[in-house]
Amino acid sequence: MARPRYVPYTLRYWRYLWRYKLTPAGRFLLWSLGFTSTGLASVVIPVYQVFCVLLSVYLVVWFFNLLFRPSLTVTGDMPQRVTAGDDLRTEFELLNSSRRRPAFDLMLWIIGLPKAFRMLSADQVIPQLAPGERGRLPLILHAEHRGVFPMPELRPHSTYPFNLMRSGSTRHPLGTVTVLPAFHPIDSLDVPVGQKYQPGGVALTSHIGESPEYIGNREYVPGEPIRRMDFRGWARLGKPVVREFQEEYYCRIALILDTWIPSRRKPRDGFPQLEAAISLSASIADALSATEHLIDIFAAGPELYVFRAGRQLSHFDNVLEILAAVDSCQKDPFAKVTPAVADELSSITTAICVFLDWDESRANLARTIVEAGCQLKLIIVRDSETRRPIEDVGGDVTVLTPERIQQGGFDRL
Questions:
Q1: What are the residue ranges of CATH 2.60.40.10 in the chain?
Q2: Which CATH code of 3.40.50.620, 3.30.70.100, 3.40.980.20, 3.40.50.410 fits the domain covering 250-407?
């Protein structure tokens, strides 16, 4: 196991000083101290006097900041899910647990907030809390893009006096926040459907939809479940018999998401093409969740995600959580996806493939699906020409640009 990288104490202290201890105004004061320190060569230069004044302010603020360091108890929880582009809003209750000292200018801050979030409530303040008094502060974070983010600890603090420094030792855990992908609902989804036999029948689905049809009785075979026994028929025929039911046939749809982007450098906001494909996949899953189809989701990232939904097996929110965790893949993932899909093709009716490009690996998967007798709907998310011409593999092909998907410029797909 790799050892954690050693960080010198001086560097750690300056990082703490710059990221937490000093407010933006305090950082400006520190820069001013550094700039005016150039006048220390002579007491005659007026800059020297400015430096002395700024240093005096800095030391006075530091002293009172330590003297009025608050003793706080934090109560509250933060929502664990939010949709990209929305605000995460909550409130925390602060208790001044000191018996003698009041607490002034109380605020909330998060050190090392993930880049996917932007704090909108940093200027919210409680002017004063008497000993034993309680107050509430809002915490508002704007989620800019999807993902699963372990959150740093919340640090309530005081900026008294002059809002130049923060003081406070209380920390409150925030857990992990899942930012779900934003999507636009699709009014109509044109998917070729059919029915195939599903091994396991109704045991794989919910208790709604087609019911097994009673077709008659037959003689009992040792080892069969007792619940299938027909005791009235046994009494009538004088020998044990069991009930027979018709096997179950359902429409099962596979949604295959391609995340292969051969790029080593990931932008801060992710790849627009991949984000659009994930948003489109969420729209398709949302449209399919209103039907009675079985839905299998294959998301090919650094890890292969295989998830089954539909017929009340799981909620649509669980699908969004899977899509929120999907990341880009630098290596060809179809070596994993194609065998996983091929194992299920005997019971899959339709496959919806959301591809980011068209090449030999993707074409092989499409041909495998069609050769297995499955219907194919192919959607390519691309803002430029594909690396090779899109060939006719026997399915419906649609090409959409990332901008059109993000703007929701279609109601029917």
A1: 1-180
A2: 3.40.50.410
Identity of residue 141? L
Q: Is 386 exposed, middle or buried (0-12, 13-18, 19+ CB in 10 A)?
A: middle
Q: Residue 375: enclosing H or E segment and its boundaries?
A: strand 375-381
In the 8-state DSSP scheme, what is residue 80? S
Q: Look at residue 40 in the predicted model and tell me its pLDDT.
A: 61
Half-sphere exposure of residue 247: CA atoms within 13 angstroms, side-chain side: 7
The confidence score (pLDDT) of residue 96 equals 95
* Residue range 220-241, pLDDT digits in tens: 888 777 777 888 888 888 888 8
Q: What is the pLDDT of residues 342-390, one digit of tens each?
A: 888 888 888 999 999 999 989 999 999 999 888 899 999 998 888 888 8
Please provide residue 114's backbone torsions phi and psi, each rounded to the nearest 5 degrees. -55, 150
Residues forming beta bridges with residue 398, ordered by sequence position? 379
Where along the chain do the CATH 3.40.50.410 domains lie? 250-407
CB atoms within 10 A of CB 13: 11
Helices and strands counted in the chain (H then E): 9, 20
Closest CA relative to residue 275, chosen from 63, 62, 79, 84 = 84
The list of the chain residues with pLDDT below 70 reads 1-7, 39-45, 193-215, 245-250, 264, 268-269, 301-302, 309-314
**Radius of gyration for the chain, computed over Cα atoms and rounded to the nearest angstrom:** 31
Compute, in degrees rounded to 10, the torsion defined by CA atoms 328, 330, 336, 337. 50
- Determine the CATH number of domain 1-180: 2.60.40.10
First to last CA, the chain: 49
